[in-house]
Amino acid sequence: MKNLVPSHIAIIMDGNGRWAKNQGFKTRIRGHEVGVDALRNAAKYASKIGVKFLTVYAFSQENWRRPKTEVDALMSILVSSLNNEVQTLQENGIRLNAIGDKESLPKKCKIELDEAILATASNNKMTLTLALSYSSRQEITSATKKIAKKIINGQISIDEINENMFSNELSTAKMPDPELLIRTSGEKRISNFLLWQISYTELVFINVLWPDFSDEHFEEAILEFNNRQRRLGMTSEQIVKQY
Ligand code: IPE
Ligand code: IPE
Ligand code: MG
User: What are the two backbone dihedrals, phi and then psi, of residue 235, each rounded to the nearest 5 degrees?
Assistant: First the structure.
């Protein structure tokens, strides 16, 4: 039986701080640095097995509440990674994309991000979306405002609001909803990530800290996904699995 590869996988990359602590590092920063290696590896693996969209939670809007030293370190890791990883993205046919409040990022991050997005724009094997300064509630609120403006301007009527048009106002508009969401580190919560988009997503919680996340863990999560029956409201009898 061949494993079905989800076309869109979302990952909450959690556990960098605990990893650094477990390894005996004085600060949490080393965990974030090694976390970049884990992301590079996961992106390569995903594009190799045929995933079309990989969306990763890299920095939440709530993460701004962390100590300034950690936030500064994360932003500088972001800048250097964007700089260093473009070649890997090109070699693997990966197009970079970002969702979240880009305007709140330091100028240098924004510039590097835009450059990397532009440089990889014609790659078409997989889209890697970084959720940066992202809040799902914020995204939903902002979609609501956009729709309200369209009504006020007379572009649409209230009756024209439907799920599809709402989805199209979100930052994930051009992507299918994720079939699989993986969270590492053992925490079992969503932390304000893609709330609208994961209404029928299979959730897989893996007991490994993000810097240790390997191809084997990724494969394990996809296997677990394949062992689930996605009923989408129907009965088991109605579901005919197609392989
Ligand atoms: C995830 O790891 C990375 C970010 C949130 C930026 P954490 O930094 O949350 O690590 P833990 O959960 O404290 O171990
Ligand atoms: C969620 O992780 C955000 C990212 C992985 C970037 P957190 O570690 O910030 O989540 P909480 O605060 O423990 O829920
Ligand atoms: Mg965490």
Answer: -95, 160
Q: Which residue has the tokens 């370190």?
A: 73
Which of the listed residues 13, 63, 187, 193 should we mutate to test ligand 2's pocket, taking the one with most ligand atoms within 8 A of CB? 63
Say if residue 142's pLDDT is above 90.
Answer: yes
Which domains can be identified in the chain, with CATH numbers?
Answer: 8-242 (3.40.1180.10)
pTM beyond 0.85: the answer is yes
Gap between the terminal Cα atoms of the chain: 7
Residue 112 makes CB contacts below 8 A (sequence gap 6+) with 78, 79, 82, 83
Mutate to test the pocket of ligand 2, among 11, 14, 39, 130 (most ligand atoms within 8 A of CB): 14
User: DSSP 3-state assignment of 109?
Assistant: helix
- Percent of the chain's residues with pLDDT above 90: 97
Q: Does residue 63 contact residue 131 with C-beta atoms inside 8 Å? A: no
Residue listed under structure tokens 């996904």: 225
pLDDT, tens only, 165-214: 999 999 999 999 999 999 999 999 999 999 999 999 999 999 999 999 99
Q: Which ligand is nearest to the CA of 15?
A: 1
CB 184 within 8 A of CB 210: yes
